[in-house]
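Worked example 2:
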Amino acid sequence: MVFFSTSFQLYQVGVALLALFMIWQGVRKYLRREGGQTFLKFFVRLIVWGGMALIALFPRMSNSIASMIGIEGNVNAVIMIGFILVFLMLFKLLSAIERLEEQITLLIRASAVSDLRKKEHNNSETISS
């Protein structure tokens, strides 16, 4: 089976570039330990976006896999675009949730420190009185 084609469509190049950018972003976050990036999150990102790039660049591969498992019909482009949009939204939502969690943690810590300082200040005034 030959998976490689010498001509690429615009969507194939676009999906491959988007996948490459998302993988690069994951590598950067993982190496810098930003945003709670764990190895599991990085690995999932690599599998998802790497798979998207492979299917975009080698669409015959998805046809071969589909025929092996018994799925007929060629709606790969539509399904892939749907998956890409869903995964983009999912990654953005997860990033937003992680940022909110970090901000809530910082606010709670600041509030706790402020309360502790007020109690210490009140105790020092009571003792000196």
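Residues 76-128 form the longest helix (53 residues). Residues 10-94 form one domain.
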